[in-house]
């Protein structure tokens, strides 16, 4: 597949300054996303914030179309929020749970989500059951099938965890959830923008994602998808007079679409930037992006595997753009700092962000290097040389 790397890098101002391998943290924004936000901030400063939003009303509305196109759903099914966690929370806490109801989740579940399960379990008496993984590391579909009974009210999993390359079989899980009529919530925070995400294929009922990671959008932006015919049944945990209209002194009426999960005040520059990020991702093509991410991640993993003392920590049959590893005799935070001093950005993934998996595999803090399509092969080599030189 032809890939115009020069164009990708030309349109990414940060490429001139850093080797950015922290795309699972926040990717480098492309020029159109940056420009859109700056322009809107300038407009706000020039004519006023409310007036700028009014003037840009059509473009702001079009953001919903862009996101809907990105994940193949309807614009009415999208709520645009501050980050993935807010979107996820608005969906999760809206799900009615009672004593004895079961939530099925995965071993590589994200910390924020698991804390929310614990809180709801404490409040309602619902039970959290963890689906075992296969020896390779992904959710075991056979175990999931066997765990299902009348008490299972929700299957809620993370597609790609924050701590490594694992890709959970989201579509197969969706098939099982659909077969049994169980609600399915997918945390797609690390996958939207990295690979094709098609709601019609995955068949999840709710999905959350963030702007700043593989989608290359602004920080402080995210979205929630909720299936159309489910929206009316879900009352968000928090409402304001935008999510629900105040109709009479004793009555409110919630928005009929997913905007009931939003609230009134917005960072419109970020919202517009998010829409442009979705359009930009679509213009590159998610299949092409995914293939390139896979090729770069393979180069990176193969290179790390050849460095004495480096141990790859990724699990799963299908692995993605995120790689985690440790380097014998080296503190991961120091490695991050040393690399950073050479303008190479990586991050450290601590055990608490994916506690069940970390405990099971006895994981220390891991160095996380996450590629994106705009990274060059030379940058991966540069990173590998820098890591290799730490052990000589
Ligand atoms: C798997 C996963 N889910 C959810 C989140 C939370 O995203 P946000 O910080 O946008 O709320 C993250 C952030 O790192 C993540 O890796």
From TrEMBL:
This is Selenocysteine lyase/cysteine desulfurase. Belongs to the class-V pyridoxal-phosphate-dependent aminotransferase family. PANTHER family: BLR4730 PROTEIN, CYSTEINE DESULFURASE. Keywords: Lyase, Pyridoxal phosphate. Its cofactor is pyridoxal 5'-phosphate. It comes from Aestuariispira insulae. The keyword Glycoprotein does not apply. Signal peptide: none annotated. Residues 21-383 form the Aminotransferase class V domain. It holds the Pfam family Aminotran_5. GO terms for molecular function: lyase activity. PROSITE patterns: AA_TRANSFER_CLASS_5.
């Amino acid at each position: 597949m032809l890939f115009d790397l020069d164009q990708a890098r030309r349109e990414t101002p940060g490429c001139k300054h850093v080797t950015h391998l922290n795309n699972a943290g926040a990717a480098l924004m492309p020029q159109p996303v940056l420009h859109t936000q700056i322009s809107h901030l300038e407009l706000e400063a020039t004519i006023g914030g409310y007036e700028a939003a009014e003037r840009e009303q059509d473009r702001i509305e079009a953001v919903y179309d862009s996101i809907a196109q990105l994940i193949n759903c309807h614009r009415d099914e999208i709520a645009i929020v501050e980050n993935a966690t807010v979107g996820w929370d608005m969906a999760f806490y809206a799900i009615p749970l009672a004593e004895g109801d079961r939530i099925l989740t995965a071993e590589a579940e994200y910390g924020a989500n698991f804390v929310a399960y614990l809180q709801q379990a404490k409040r309602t008496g619902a039970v959290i059951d963890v689906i075992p993984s296969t020896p390779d590391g992904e959710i075991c579909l056979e175990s999931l099938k066997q765990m299902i009974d009348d008490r299972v009210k929700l299957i809620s999993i993370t597609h790609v965890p924050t701590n490594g390359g694992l890709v959970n079989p989201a579509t197969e899980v969706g098939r099982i959830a659909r077969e049994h009529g169980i609600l399915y919530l997918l945390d797609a925070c690390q996958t939207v923008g990295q690979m094709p995400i098609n709601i019609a294929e995955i068949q999840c009922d709710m999905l959350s994602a963030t702007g700043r990671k593989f989608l290359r959008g602004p920080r402080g932006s995210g979205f929630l998808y909720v299936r159309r015919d489910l929206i009316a049944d879900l009352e968000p945990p928090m409402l304001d007079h935008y999510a629900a209209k105040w109709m009479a002194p004793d009555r409110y009426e919630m928005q009929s679409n997913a905007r009931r999960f939003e609230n009134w005040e917005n960072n419109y520059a970020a919202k517009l930037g998010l829409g442009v990020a979705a359009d930009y991702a679509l213009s590159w093509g998610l299949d092409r992006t995914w293939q390139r991410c896979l090729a770069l991640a393979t180069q990176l993993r193969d290179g790390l595997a050849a460095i004495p003392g480096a141990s790859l920590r990724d699990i799963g049959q299908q692995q993605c753009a995120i790689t985690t590893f440790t380097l014998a005799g080296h503190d991961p935070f120091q490695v991050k700092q040393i690399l950073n001093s050479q303008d190479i950005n990586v991050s450290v993934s601590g055990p608490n962000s994916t506690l069940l998996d970390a405990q099971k595999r006895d994981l220390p803090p891991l160095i996380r290097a996450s590629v994106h399509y705009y990274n060059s092969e030379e940058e991966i080599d540069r990173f590998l040389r820098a890591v290799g030189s730490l052990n000589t």
